[in-house]
Amino acid sequence: xxxxxxxxxxxxxxxxxxxxxxxxxxxxxxxxxxxxxxxxxxxxxxxxxxxxxxxxxxxxxxxxxxxxxxxxxxxxxxxxxxxxxxxxxxxxxxxxxxxxxxxxxxxxxxxxxxxxxxxxxxxxxxxxxxxxxxxxxxxx
Length: 140
Hints:
Blueprint: E1 3-6, E2 11-16, E3 22-24, H1 27-33, E4 39-46, E5 49-58, E6 61-71, E7 75-84, E8 88-91, E9 94-98, E10 104-106, H2 109-114, E11 122-128, E12 131-136
Antiparallel strand pairs: 1-2, 2-11, 3-10, 4-5, 4-9, 5-12, 6-7, 8-9, 11-12
């Protein structure tokens, strides 16, 4: 669940991390930074904050299963199961993670452990220099 806080400088968002370290990047933020589905973000720690920075690397989907069926005479359905190739990579600039079609991205467990981030912790999202800054919200 997201909450929008308006300030004179910019719009800030409050997001919650789930038990698997996933966060949802709000669509307004993705549009502002032109973050598309299947793009990778560098995720790294800067002090007590987490930085998400857009990468130039694109990812591809690998089709695992595909089938076209015709049912009820003229009704046609198409089933496709795919996975993202190389969804977890490491780079000298940080860990790379894929943004899925819902705007969900996983924060690496190493960063979560270092910063003592737990399930249901909330974060403020700020944008600076085309980077997303996650600031742990201590006022739950």
